[in-house]
Model the fold of this input.
Amino acid sequence: MAEPILRVENVTAGYVKDLPILRDVSLTLERSTVAVIIGPNGAGKSTLIKAVAGLVSVSSGSIHLDGADISNIRPDEMAKHAIAYVPQNDNIFRTLSVRQNLELVLRKKPRAEIAKALDGLYARFPMLGERQRQKGGSLSGGQRQTLAIAMALATRPSIMLLDEPSAGLSPKAAQEVMELAKSLTERGVSILLVEQNVNQALRFADHCYILAEGRNQLDGKAADLLDDPVVGEIYLGGKRVRAS
Done:
């Protein structure tokens, strides 16, 4: 079996020294798959992906990407390690146009490469090409998330960290964003995401980790957890919902 692209082992981490939010948390992310982290508010879900991105200090344990120890990398080193992080809020520049948002991410490339990259992104996301002169702040919620994901994809990541990508979106837009995230695995991108819409996330993810009070509680194949009575009772309103 191939080595997972990401391995988090016994990580304790938090924003303030000696006040950990995560306690001895572990997970693995297989290549070209989607793993979702779910759990109640305050469980440490967002803290976990921020620890991977170097945005939260890891006090013990380790994080390995492609076998290399990336524990406590600096946030500005994410691109160097082919990591892209899409926060829940403030993930685009609202006063800039769609094109300017994308160009900002690509700014260090030669001009010819920028043009080629933009053409590729517009081909992959036609909506962005159609609205390239439109201000980011005037896009709908789903369109903004698409732009944020396109900006992350422009850095050519091997792993993408998504923090509640469907938050505040209509059911239709949320589904489209989840379908987009899933489609990126076909391009070799591995996805680790936090999601509050548990039912929907379990339908799109390959694997699921459940956290509570900063600790691992349960993990397994997403399709299996959809039909798990304990998960159903806690997260799906007492209903056991089979994946279609």
Q: What stands out?
A: The radius of gyration is 18 Å. Strands lie at 6-14, 22-29, 34-38, 57-65, 68-69, 83-86, 159-163, 190-194, 207-212, 215-221.
